[in-house]
Amino acid sequence: MTRWRRPLTYLVVAAVVLAAWQLLTSSGLVKPLLLAPPDLVWAALGHLWQQPANILGPISVTLRETAVAFAAAAAIATPIGLVVGSSALLRRAYEPVLTTVSAVPLVVLYPVLAATLGVGSSSKVALGALYAFFPVAIATTRAAANVDNRLVIAAEAMGATRAQYIRSVVLPATLSPLVVGMRVAMALALVTIIAAEFISGADGVGYELGTASQGLDTPSLFAWVVIACTLTIGVNVIFTLTTNAVLKGIHR
Amino acid sequence: MSDETQISVRDVSLSYGPIVAALDLTFDVRRGEFVSLIGPSGCGKSSALRAIGGLLSPQTGEVHLGGSVVRGPRPKEISFVFQDLALYPWRSALRNVEVALQFAGVTRKERRARAMEALHLVGLGDVPNRFPNQLSGGMQQRVAIARALVSDASVLLLDEPFAALDEQTRLRLGGQLLTLLEEQGKTVVFVTHSLSEAAYLSDRIVVMGPRPATIKEVISVPLPRPRHPSMMRAPEFHELTDRLSSLLFEDDRGPS
Questions:
Q1: Which of A90, A97, A236, B198 has the smallest C-beta neighbourhood within 10 Å, fewest atoms?
Q2: Is A158 on the interface with B (CB under 8 A)?
Q3: What average pLDDT does range B231-248 have in this prediction?
Q4: ipTM (interface predicted TM)
Q5: CATH fold group of domain A51-251
């Protein structure tokens, strides 16, 4: 009985929110053009699902762009963070640069990216990668700098080369914070890419959101909001399961 | 033990920034000899050990090992056991021992076999796959010793390796370590704050004063080898520990 208590609280809260939503719209307090009633959103979802490609197509475009952006960012940011973090000089010089640049609203670069890479997929991937780069680089730098000094001295005494030291001491010691940075990066890449598709896309979840919103098709707009939320939650869950499995493998 | 000098510490002074840790240390260690460094805490005995191992550069003076000056870590000739052990928490016991060989570029197959052998040597052949946090303090200590032995370095530098253990475990482990090292003919420099440990394990004891430490005396231990726990009841043993303790505490007799 007790194991059902927690899921039950979710169900109750969801039911209350849905009921309030329905009540707000059907009572006429909020215009259906601003807030579509849940039954219409459900109907819009059902309508989209009649042709599953209507939903799965844009999702796969957005996911593919996110995956490429994230992979590129992680592949570049991880080694940079490891090297910068494991040298006192480089860290003093570049950690402030990383944190400062990461605070710049990089989306201002989008027109530049669009001009150089075109308004197609690559400029969106580039912007997503740019956003994903900093959380990984900063987390890795900090973690690499905080490796237990005793382990560092032991490696030195055993004659570890710099590469061996980074591979066998710094990397394993930094994995957990690295994963936290990657989780943030993954979420940022997804958000950025959806936003870029929304601004100037021809495809993807962001583009569908934009189309529905410009067409004043509020039920469809909300249906895509639901799809986008489900997508981000799904990506997060898959990320957690994957990293748990990988960490288990590496720390064995 | 041979008469050949293996380690030679010559007029070595050590400092961390403005803090002088040790002054003008001079002593020799012969091949196969077991030498302990004792002294009040903070007297720079750990720093002296690090200087011998090439982890700390002397301000003045030199450390010679087998005829050449030590200018950095020499993992082929010197291995360390640190006070805090420095085991890698994400590696199993076996892989913690292997890491010394891995850094030396030994192939995976050979290092696995040698690491296993070293674990057997310290009595941990049955738990190679446990992680440090699944081992008791004494067992972790044995892993650290196995890691120091596996590289076949002829010099072993031990920095208060048993400090975290209770007195019984410490003397038992120390005795077992001694037997092992006698068999392997290792040259050992051992930092400790336990007088009975130093007296029981050593051939000679270097007694250091408070900071900045200088050497007060180098004492030869009059007990025969191999050592046996019963020797701790011998009158020579008590005379020795009395002498050590009076040397260590004579500085405390200042104006009170």
A1: A97
A2: yes
A3: 91
A4: 0.85
A5: MetI-like fold (1.10.3720)
